[in-house]
UniProtKB/TrEMBL annotation:
The lineage of its organism: Bacteria, Bacillati, Actinomycetota, Actinomycetes, Kitasatosporales. The active site is at E260. The keyword NADP applies. Signal peptide: none annotated. PANTHER family: ALDEHYDE DEHYDROGENASE (PTHR42991). Keywords: NADP, Oxidoreductase. Belongs to the aldehyde dehydrogenase family. One of its GO terms (molecular function) is lactaldehyde dehydrogenase (NAD+) activity. This is Aldehyde dehydrogenase family protein.
């Protein structure tokens, strides 16, 4: 409950549209069913097209007043929002845990991480400085013009996060947008909408006007096209599957896009690597949140001569992961997408039928896929290329670093890669050849810390995120050119001053 006693989550009978609470007069509700135990965690409204029009109209109108407020005032509101979010980490974390079966501690950490994101963005936004230049820095020009460039907001940002970080990947879009004077229309994932709604109510408690941060709930497959084609959209910031992202890009028309999509991140292990450290990083990277992370380690490319030893170490560590209920903080929990569990099982069976060797796991009970390591996976197997979004780790053995690079780059994706070696020259050479957004040297693939630039090449995305890059992406440069008179102070023709 908020301090004023209002329920923070929208319910099927009450929801905000254009900033105001509305009573539902029809049956457009969408239950949020928990992957943990099948219970109904809550329900949300499926917005109509007319309501979406109202949302964009009121967001657009409110944005101008929001952008006109002093930057320090907007930053202060984000700090207050961050404080409330951190205070409510337990409450929101519990809902998030039931909505997406994220282990209790990780769910709470996601909320705290989002508060940190807000604070960092509020501070960085204050330090966006423009630039100015005289005309005579270009050949043939006199010093008679002064350009002053500054950053202005784009209007209304349509923010569409995925289920795996319904709070953090919403905040990573909302924070830079609001800090820079944009309004936001948030379309949360259907699985994760309740925690996203709770989070937005905290923003309103903190003083963010409800018209400049609005939430539109409903299935992406039903309302997504209408949203992304809406004339009120100034930029779309989307995180999710490469399929949905590519489809959205085709439909959106001439609006700037920030896309964070799928990945098949390789961990390349050379023969001189510290295999204990590499195994620890690979297991954490592959199995955290049951592999449902775009940046999860999704394949190991290991030099033959150390492959047996590495696979043994990976398998030993993976076997110790706890499997079960997120309320007990189990590390491996039921998958959000029931089809992903069946799909992962099929990929493993097909690989084993084709000659791969099951080192661990390979079974599931409903959505609960036991942590699985598949060795001797080869290029002709689907498991080498498809992103399972499940706790399944294929190992491909390679003869050389060059072969690892070739296989790394053969993927349609290009999010991140990890290289494990004690030879820094080799690491740098390999990194230079990998067509990915980020290469981690002797560490697992990961997005954070959140102010680092986050980029995907090929089917993994478009544009750069991270605190500062997102601030830049959600603004555009506007130039003011002052044309100088060409006369000196005493009225004579100017020399090359000032
Ligand atoms: N690179 C990255 O950072 C990440 C990538 N992913 C990728 O996403 C996949 C799983 O995530 P998932 O959430 O299922 O991804 P989806 O692409 O299915 O959904 C992402 C978001 O888009 C919405 N959406 C669905 N259809 C449309 C549409 N036609 N137009 C507009 N929005 C739409 C969803 O809403 P709804 O929930 O209502 O369907 C959700 O909010 C994995 O393949 C993974 O690789 C996931 C997380 C991060
Ligand atoms: O979308 C994702 O899966 C995240 O951006 C990954 O973030 P993480 O590396 O912090 O888990």
């Amino acid at each position: 409950m908020t301090k004023t006693g209002e329920t923070r989550t929208a319910t099927a009978s009450r929801y905000r549209v254009a900033g105001r609470w509305q009573e539902v007069d029809d049956a457009r509700t969408l239950p949020v069913v928990s992957p943990v135990d099948g219970s109904v965690t809550g329900s949300v409204r499926e917005f109509t097209h007319a309501e979406i029009d109202e949302v964009f109209a009121s967001a657009g109108a409110a944005q101008r007043a929001w952008a006109a407020r002093p930057l320090t005032e907007r930053a202060d509101l984000l700090h207050r929002f961050a404080d409330r979010l951190a205070e409510s980490a337990g409450e929101i974390g519990d809902v998030l845990m039931m909505e997406i079966a994220k282990p209790a501690k990780d769910a709470r950490d996601e909320v705290v991480r989002s508060a940190d994101y807000l604070r960092h963005t509020a501070e960085d936004a204050k330090r966006i400085i423009g630039e100015s230049q005289f005309s005579d820095s270009f050949p043939g020009q006199a010093r008679n013009k002064l350009a002053v460039a500054h950053r202005v907001p784009l209007g209304t940002v349509l923010a569409i996060p995925p289920f795996n970080y319904p709070v953090n990947l919403a905040v990573s879009k909302i924070a830079p947008a609001l800090a820079t004077g944009n309004a936001v229309v948030l379309k949360p994932p259907s699985q994760g909408a309740l925690s996203a709604l709770m989070m937005c109510e905290l923003a309103y408690d903190a003083g963010v006007p409800p018209e400049v941060l609005q939430v539109v709930t409903g299935r992406g497959s039903r309302i997504g096209d209408y949203l992304v084609r809406h004339s009120g959209v100034g930029l779309i910031s989307f995180t999710g599957s490469s399929e949905t992202g590519a489809d959205l890009a085709r439909k959106a028309g001439m609006v700037p896009l920030l896309l964070e999509l799928g990945g098949k991140d390789p961990a390349i292990v050379l023969d001189d690597a510290d295999l204990d450290d590499a195994a620890a990083d690979i297991v954490a990277g592959a199995f955290s949140y049951s592999g449902q992370r775009c940046t999860a380690v999704k394949r190991v490319l290991v030099i033959d001569s150390v492959a047996d030893e590495l696979v043994a170490k990976i398998t030993e560590r993976t076997a110790k992961l706890t499997v079960g209920d997120p309320r007990d903080n189990a590390q491996i929990t039921p998958l959000v997408d029931a089809d992903a569990a069946a799909g992962a099982e099929r990929l493993v069976h097909d690989a084993v039928a084709g000659g791969a060797v099951l080192a661990l796991g390979g079974t599931r009970t409903g959505r609960l896929v036991r942590p699985t390591v598949v060795d001797h996976v080869t290029e002709d197997m689907e498991l080498a290329w498809v992103e399972p979004f499940a706790p399944v780790l294929p190992v491909l053995r390679v003869g050389s670093a060059a072969e690892a690079v070739r296989l790394g780059n053969r993927s349609e994706y290009g999010l991140q890669a990890a290289v494990f070696t004690r030879d820094i020259d080799a690491a740098i050479q390999i990194a230079a050849r990998l067509d990915v957004g980020t290469v981690q040297v002797n560490g697992r693939t990961a997005r954070g810390p959140d102010h680092f630039p986050f980029v995907g090449t090929k089917a993994s995305g478009m544009g750069t995120q991270g605190v500062k890059p997102s601030i830049e992406a959600m603004t555009r440069v506007k130039s003011l050119v002052v044309n100088l008179s060409g006369k000196d102070l005493d009225g004579t023709a100017a020399s090359s001053r000032p």
